[in-house]
Specification:
The protein is α/β, with parallel strands linked by helices. The protein has one domain (about 5-165): Spore Coat Polysaccharide Biosynthesis Protein SpsA, Chain A. It contains five helices and eleven strands, in the order βββαβαβαββαββββα. It has helices at about 30-40, 55, 75-85, 105-110, 155-165; strands at about 5-10, 25, 30, 45-50, 65-70, 90-95, 95-100, 115-120, 125-130, 135-140, 150. The strands form three sheets. Strands 5-4-1-6-9-8-10 form a seven-stranded mixed beta sheet, sandwiched between helices.
Amino acid sequence: MRIVAVVMAGGRAERMGGVVKPLLRVCGKPLIEHVLGPLEGAWRIILALSRYTVEGLRGYCRRYNCIYTSGAGYPWDLGEVLSSILYRPLIIVPADIVGLGPWLLKLAEDVGDRSIYTVKCGGRPLGVSIIPGRGWDWEDLEAGCRVVNVNTWEDLERAEQACRGYMEGTRLRAS
């Protein structure tokens, strides 16, 4: 299946003082690379940037297609992305998650096409949406995964600890 993956990387990171969050490092590499790696099997990867992140992430536009949003906030930026990318199926992924793996694209390939899916891990929304194309019903999809979504400095430390544990052979854990 030819899935287009959109990485939402235009946020203001207000809870973290306005840093370019996708460039913060976890286990030696930027957060955004923890997302891009598992998406490498997608037909096309598009980065959604805004004025808050374009300077820091411009170099990624040499390898990936980039689109630019207003930076008005996630729901508005997502609306801009969905109105400018008409191709389906589409998977939307935030740029600040550690612990994704090949299972994510497999999940997107295996869903039906009658609904839009919100992916949950351990019962909590992951921030990932799968838009297969035809349906407009909305369903939750439990992936049974363990990830860390980095929204605060404490989350960044948890991601680092989880990543180190994962690299040492233990399971990735999110609290």
